Amino acid sequence: MSTSKNIEIEFYQNLGKLFYAIAASDKVVRKSEYDSLRKIVKSEWLKTGTMEDGFGVNASYQIEIVFDWLDYEEELNAEECFKEFEAYYKKNTSSFTDSLKNLIWNTVNTIADSFSGKNKSELMMLGRLKLIFEKQ
Q1: How far from 80 is each of 51, 97, 113, CA to CA, in Å?
Q2: pLDDT (average), residues 30-58
Q3: DSSP state letter for 92
Q4: Predicted pLDDT at 52
Q5: Burial of 81 (0-12, 13-18, 19+ CB in 10 A)
Q6: 60: CB partners within 8 A, 6+ apart
Q7: How many domains does the chain have?
Q8: Are 97 and 89 in contact (CB under 8 A)?
Q9: Radius of gyration of the chain from its Cα atoms, rounded to whole angstroms
Q10: Average of pLDDT values for 105-120?
Q11: How far apart (Å, rounded) are the C-alpha atoms in residues 118 and 129?
């Protein structure tokens, strides 16, 4: 696998961690949050993926794959996932254009709004993400 392909896959995997962190911030990932994520991956993120993973699938599907894996297999907590995304972001800040940050922001808000609006845990994590994006 080429280096650029690995970089793109790693990017989408880290987005999966962030989106999982938002959904799991209240310790429960609901079906509506899964559904919102899948819908926005298909409607928005597939447009951003230019490469395929090792199975010939658009690399942006790594978002869903990692999200599912974290929820069903790994069971990392939201805080750990958020910190992993934050570390990735800080190492790769130049890759995050304003339009990309806007798409990420729209995605996290869609996930957070999908079940009875945003709760306190989600609002706190969204605030932290906003601060991270504004620092750079």
Answers
A1: 28, 24, 22
A2: 81
A3: S
A4: 58
A5: buried
A6: 12, 41, 45, 46, 48, 49
A7: 1
A8: no
A9: 14
A10: 85
A11: 15
Buried b (16+ CB within 10 A) or exposed e, 19-43: bbbbbbbbeebeeebbebbeebbee
- CB count in 10 Å sphere of residue 123: 13
How far apart, in whole angstroms, are the C-alpha atoms of residue 2 and residue 111?
Answer: 32
Site of tokens 């447009």:
47
DSSP 31-76: HHHHHHHHHHHHHTGGGT--SB-TTSSBGGGHHHHHHHHIIIII--
What residue type is assigned to position 24 of the chain?
A
Q: What is the DSSP letter of 98?
A: H
Measure the CA–CA gap between 107 and 55, rounded to whole angstroms: 25
Any idea what the CATH number is for the domain that residue 29 is in?
1.10.3680
Task: Kindly state the average pLDDT of the residues 49-74.
Answer: 77
Domain that holds residue 55: 3-135
State whether residue 1 is helix, strand or coil.
coil
pTM: 0.89
